[in-house]
Input
Amino acid sequence: MQFTLERAQGWPEARVFGVDEAGRGPWAGPVTAAAICLPRGFDLAVDDSKKLTAKKREALFETLIALPHGIGTACVAEIDRLNILQATFLAMRRAVDALADNIGAPAHVLVDGNKLPDWPYAAQAVIGGDGLAPSIAAASILAKVTRDRDMAALDAQFPGYGWASNKGYGAKAHQIGLEKLGVTPHHRRSYAPIAKILRGETA
Output
């Protein structure tokens, strides 16, 4: 895939942060955001994390994690208190702030989607950005792999829901786990399927 957004805008890559998130839809677990600053001349074949196999994402992750980046999360309690959009923005702010604290404020931030967090940085929301800007694509891989690993760790602590494979989404194994084992502290109580269970209804 040929990415042109950063070059077309005339932004030196080293001054642009790309931001993306993973985990807005699942019934359980945190929402995770990543910010990354790619070096000049970056030519690794990154793409939207959803279009890559797990093996390819893991391989790219090991390269990308060595570059300047920040990771931010919002926990289940924050998701339930703020709503998922605002919790996602919180995770994004934490990711960008972490990277800015490390290497300095960006000249510009590119965010996947159509809305921006409230922050002091010059930024642009880019619909389909993980297919248009390498920095966003790279951030999507960092966010996805980080969250997948976190869900695998939670699966080891709370077996029976299939989180290592379904990542907290409402897959059949997850539904069966809820029926047998009930709601855990890592379930999003504000989400309708979980709220129904807590009211004694069917998910």
